[in-house]
Amino acid sequence: MNLTEYGNFKPQKCYNLWTKENNNGIISNYNKIFSLNETAFDIWNLINGSRNINDIINEITNIYDTNYTDVKKDCITTLKYFHENNLAIIDYDPLFKLGKKNKKIDFSLYEQCAVRNTEEKEIDILLITPPSPKYEANVLEKNYSAFPLGIGYLLAALNKYTSVKYAYLNLRSQIITEKQINDLLNKIKPSIIGISCMTENYLNGIRLIKYIKETVNYPFLAIAGGPHISLCYPDILNEKIIDYCFIGESESSIVNFMTKYKNNQDVGTVKGIAYINKNNNNICFNKNEENNNLDSLEFPIIDNRTKIGKYFVTISGSRGCPFSCKFCAAGKLSGCKYRFRSINNIIEEINTHYKKGIKNFGFIDDTITVFPERVKELCKIIKERNMEILWNAESRVDVAAKDKDMLKEMYSCGCRMLQFGIEAGTNSKLIEIKKNITINQIEKALDNAFDVGLQISGTMVVGLPNENEESIIKTFEFAETLQKNYPINIVVGWFVPYPGTLYRDELLSNNNQNYNLFDFDIFTTLHPNFNYGSEEFYKYQNLYFNHMIKIMKNNTSILKDLELHTSFFDNKNEYN
Q: What is the pLDDT of residue 309?
């Protein structure tokens, strides 16, 4: 690759686990450590997806106050090294960054459901999950992610209650080029294009809608839904790119919206949507009624043709979270309310997949064990039905610490892994973040879980507002102590100030200038989200990097052990 011809290309890092040590750099791609000298690290540090190669050469020239020709040669050599070792994308675009190969589009459910046994090619609505702006996130999504249930529920509702022609395009799990999206849209000409957004891929969703509006030769309505949309819809609507925002759970809203739209009726009366009133420029929000009968929902339409979907399916047995941890938005999204489906309804959904040969399931409930007796009933029926399945779920440690019998029942009917939110290494920090658990409960929960044969993954968070170096070290030391005492897989991530979190609200009210609060593209759990590039940033990133390398090495051995004694990790451990 002759990079001298591509001065306008904008390189971007492929991996965010890196640090600075004694003016030199260290990068991890999770399998190998790369060491960089001072100049190479300065070049690495300038790679951010917005500077082009010429910008980088000029900045390095200024830093070292030396001959431009020599610097250019060093920069090109270093960038080629990054490219050849898959450490950086040389021609980065946050939306189409990997779309250089003209691969066939997996137009998901179009052939299966959208055309509705007619020869018409044009459709009414196309739902899209935008790609992440991060290389590593899209790689994980492509190889390890199951079909998104939120989209599945919307498609099921449209399929049951309307006659509209619909389709879904998942851009988190595949590569697409500008030409492909143009050709596709000009062929099917959807009247409505909807994006489903988390915070991470929201800006890419906006870029995608803007790109489509600028390039396709027909008008369409732009709609948006998902957690980020529900939390930030006033700001989103004021950008005048999205026409209608769908707030909260939208199965009934999308049905009513499409029905009115197809009948040329006023969609502005639909409950659960927000939009700008064209008469007065005010934002209108029609609050929806909460669905307290989750059994009334159609089972989500799942595309089993994805790499992982051939043998693994996710299930949602409940909605909402009754807790209000300060670093998490789940409580805000649900109003701290918890609703659940009947056990028979859950079993019926599992059975629809089981009859097709799928035997691996993942419960995506924020915490499945809120009511232990309900979990025991689920386990009882699975065993009564002689369903030979394997499954995983998330649980709070306080419940697992109190009810070992529940854990035994879970293991006896196929549960092999639980995820615990451990979060911090001291009781004082657990109190501060409103986790409402203790160190003793964490350890007791792990004792119980491993006694009955379960495998555990634990998540922890550092870099919380006002957290100092001592507190961060204590969290890492606790993680390392747990790994010495238990075969636990642990992930420690930096705090991210997501919309809907109590911590973000505090940072905004205090006009905190240190944290990155609005550039959602660079939100990451792999380096501090404050004072980027400062000495403080590098100090904490160095601390994080050195501890995480040790933790990751221990995690690797645990995953190998898991592969030996449970078939949950069949097919090369496609899910973790």
A: 58
